[in-house]
Design a protein that fits this description.
Elements: H1 6-11, E1 25-27, H2 39-42, E2 48-50, E3 70-72, E4 92-94, E5 117-119, H3 131-138, E6 144-145, E7 148-149, H4 152-197, H5 206-214, H6 221-239, E8 267-268, E9 274-278, E10 282-287, E11 298-303, E12 306-311, E13 314-319, E14 330-333, E15 340-345, H7 361-372
Parallel strand pairs: 1-2, 2-3, 3-4, 4-5, 5-6
Antiparallel strand pairs: 6-7, 8-13, 9-10, 10-15, 11-12, 12-13, 14-15
Helix pairs in contact: 3-4
Subcellular location: Cell projection, Cilium; Cytoplasm
Main location: other
GO biological process, one term: outer dynein arm assembly
């Protein structure tokens, strides 16, 4: 049996800095809770309480929650609506997929004058003829029933049928109670027979699990409790080492930051985006840290050949190709984006070769004036070699044959 403890409530109140006295919203779903307790004493400021997918058989110990506006107890083992009269601010009640067969118990909600939405889908009482008409008249303050709006015409039609309808529903409730008592005995015998058939098998035997999950069962609170216990037992066995650790899938992967030779590995456990720039004189690492993450949860460690950033216990490590000056490295974080910029000067910066400057037009004119330019006309006939005095014979163009 899972109990509601102070430790459990504080664990679920991380959004309120673990303070339960001023807590306004509490979610305790899928915890296999079997009883509502202590919440009314510890969390009196609650406005939203979520208790769906548990094993709660009864509504109780909620009368101190005067500010509660939304109560969700869907998918539990509740068979009757009760003990909610003191919830003055209750506006929405969700009882989906429970085992409520006593439909007349909804009359206990008449005192909840702020109640506007009620969900009873999946309960045995919804199969009664005239179910919707009865609830509409029994709770005149409702605006929606099972997610469907209640109109004025719906109320007028239901008011005509209500006197005879209530007598019929009381008879159906009596028949349901008899069937429920018979079902309770029948299911209990079935559970005892099933446990006797696998009593000699070990708890970790697969045959026990196969027999349990393949057997036919009735939809009732006892079956739901049995399924929850069986699932919880399997989880406890897995936590205690029931898994086969020889299989690769069950081995816990260990974190390795360095190779056997001492070379650092590069890894990104928090899966954050980053930009890395290799400048001639420095390395720049722009790490896209989450915008709303508090800086106290981030640790930076710059070493000669690697830089490590730990974000909420998860390591981001980057191996560097060149050694850096750790004492001159800096780290800054943007207040706007949350990004973190780490600048790491290199121990031996690369040499930067400046490009040769081109001569400007003024320099060219100055060189020509000092004697570096032309001094007279150029004889183009002597460029291809030969003396200027040797004249080549002229070619008679008439003697040149035609091209074929």
């Amino acid at each position: 049996m899972v109990r509601i403890t102070e430790q459990l409530i504080r664990k679920k109140s991380e959004h309120n800095e673990l303070i339960i006295g001023t807590l306004e919203e509490l979610s305790l779903h899928q915890e296999d809770i079997e009883r509502i307790e202590h919440i009314g004493h510890w969390c009196r400021e609650l406005k939203i309480l979520l208790l769906q997918s548990n094993l709660i058989p009864r509504l109780e110990n909620l009368n101190r929650l005067k500010k509660l506006e939304y109560l969700n107890v869907a998918i539990n083992n509740i068979e009757r609506i009760e003990n909610l009269e003191a919830l003055e601010a209750l506006q929405k009640l969700d009882l989906t997929l429970n085992f409520i067969g006593e439909l007349t118990s909804v009359e206990s909600l008449r005192a909840n004058y702020n109640l506007r939405e009620l969900f009873l889908t999946g309960n045995p009482c919804t199969d009664y003829p005239g179910y919707r008409e009865y609830v509409i008249i029994a709770l005149p303050q409702l605006a929606h029933l099972d997610g469907k709006e209640i109109t004025r015409s719906d109320r007028l039609l239901a008011a005509k049928q209500f006197p005879a309808l209530r007598e019929r529903i009381v008879q159906l409730e009596a028949l349901h109670k008899i069937e429920r008592d018979e079902q309770r005995v029948r299911v209990q015998q079935s559970i005892e027979e099933q446990e006797a058939s696998v009593r000699d098998l070990p708890d970790d035997d697969e045959r026990r699990a196969t027999t349990f999950w393949q057997q036919k069962s009735e939809h009732c609170p006892e079956t739901r409790i049995q399924m929850a216990k069986f699932s919880r037992r399997a989880k406890d066995q897995a936590a205690a080492g029931g898994k086969n650790l020889d299989r690769p899938d069950d081995r816990k992967r260990t974190r390795r930051l360095f190779a056997e030779c001492g070379r650092p590995y590069s890894l990104n456990e928090p899966r954050v985006s980053f930009e890395f720039r290799d400048e001639p004189d420095r390395f720049e690492l722009d790490l896209h840290v989450y915008k709303y993450l508090d800086t106290s949860l981030v640790e930076v460690d710059a070493q000669p050949n690697y830089v490590r950033v730990t974000i909420k216990g998860k390591v981001f490590q980057l191996a560097l190709k060149h050694d850096i000056q750790t004492d001159r490295s800096t780290c800054q974080r943007s207040q706007t984006t949350g990004h973190m910029l780490i600048v790491m000067p290199k121990l031996n910066p690369e040499r930067i070769v400046a490009p040769a400057e081109e001569k400007r037009p003024s320099q060219v004119n100055q060189s020509q004036a000092t004697g570096g330019g032309l001094k007279g006309p150029v004889d183009i006939r002597s460029i291809c070699g030969g003396s200027s005095q040797t004249k080549q014979p002229r070619i008679n163009e008439d003697e040149v044959p035609d091209l074929i």
